[in-house]
Amino acid sequence: MVIVVLGILAIFGWDFLKSKKIIVSPTSQITSKEKPLEKYSYDALSKTKFAASKIELGEVLKDEADFTSRIFYFWVEGKKVSGLVNLPKVIGEYPVVVMFRGYVDREIYATGTGTQHTAEVFAQNGFITLAPDFLGYGQSDNPSASPIEERFQTYTTALTLLESVSNLNQALRSVSNIKADPEKVGIWGHSNGGQIAMSVLEISGKNYPTVLWAPVSAPFPYSILYYTDDYDDHGKMLRRVVSDFEKDYDVEDYSPTNFFDRINAPIQLHQGTADESVPQKWSDQLVEQLKEKGKQVEYFTYLGADHNLAPNGWSQAVGRSIDFYHLFLK
To answer: Using H for helix, E for strand and C for coil, what is the string for the chain?
Structure first.
């Protein structure tokens, strides 16, 4: 009886499949969908070896009594990236501060925007500064056509530049009598550049003493969706891009808030209380979370100061940043 029933089910089952025009192959295999952005997860990037690029120095943009500002170039996965280097003039060997700017609209961007004012003061106080433009900005090559991948390319650009500091002296020989100390490298990041800086610390695990000014520290992708009202389409395209990304990837693998335990560098953080771009509560929470994990963090707030620490915090923040770098890099 059991054999008869199974036979009937088999016959009707096959007829059903034929009626639905479903073809069953005993050799068919389920293939997984390609996920090209998996290589940008924090775990994947932490296992990636970033090769040092050569550094080339270009035209002089500013020549002052105590420092010189020049265009520089390096290469990331075959793409050229431009940036601005500030060089002290007094003969000596200097620590290097790599600087990451926040968001700037491409239409108004020029090399050095977002870092130059602070970088000049750093150079006047005995630091070489390097600030990349990032792909798509300045004289750099174009980034990925994917807005999400373009964001992740800022991490690979930053990590490659930090590795490339070891080649800076080769470039300096032809234009300057000063030297860089590749063993003494710090990071400065403002706004989204602060988020890039934190990501670099988490991915590399290296001890780069880091100063953050009003860093974007909310979880990804909320950290970008928060700003959708600033777009002409009120963020419709961005929300669609993020939604498509979430269909194939776990956003938790791409959020810096999940990897604070990997930070092995001292941090100094500056935040204006009147900042409308990065709410103070983000920095308050960031400091609390870092301290809970036993990280070394120093926190300063500036009453009434905006996103750029104006009108009453900028000078003090620069002075404290210099003191921080002197402590850990000099």
So the answer is: CHHHHHHHHHHHHHHHHHHCCCCCCCCCCCCCCCCHHHHHCHHHHHCCCCCCCCCEEEEEEEECCCEEEEEEEEEECCEEEEEEEEEECCCCEEEEEEEECCCCCHHHCCCCCCCHHHHHHHHHCCCEEEEECCCCCCCCCCCCCCHHHHHHHHHHHHHHHHHHHHHHHHHHCCCCCCEEEEEEEEEEEECHHHHHHHHHHHHHCCCCCEEEECCCCCCCCHHHHCCHHHCCCCCHHHHHHHHHHHHHCCHHHHCHHHCHHHCCCCEEEEEECCCCCCCHHHHHHHHHHHHHCCCCEEEEEECCCCCCCCCCCHHHHHHHHHHHHHHHHC
Residue 139 has, within 13 A of its CA and on its CB side, a CA count of 14
Q: Which domains does the chain have, with CATH numbers?
A: 35-329 (3.40.50.1820)
Dist CA 330 CA 133 (whole Å): 27
* Alpha-carbon span 214 to 192, nearest angstrom: 9
C-alpha to C-alpha distance for 9 and 3, rounded to whole angstroms = 10
* pLDDT single digits (tens) 218-259: 999 999 999 987 778 888 888 999 999 999 999 999 999 999
Cross-sheet strand order for the sheet of 93-100: 56-63, 67-76, 79-88, 128-132, 93-100, 179-190, 210-213, 267-272, 297-302
pLDDT in tens, 157-204: 999 999 999 999 999 999 999 999 999 999 999 999 999 999 999 999
Q: How confident is the model at residue 278 (pLDDT cuts 50, 70, 90)?
A: very high
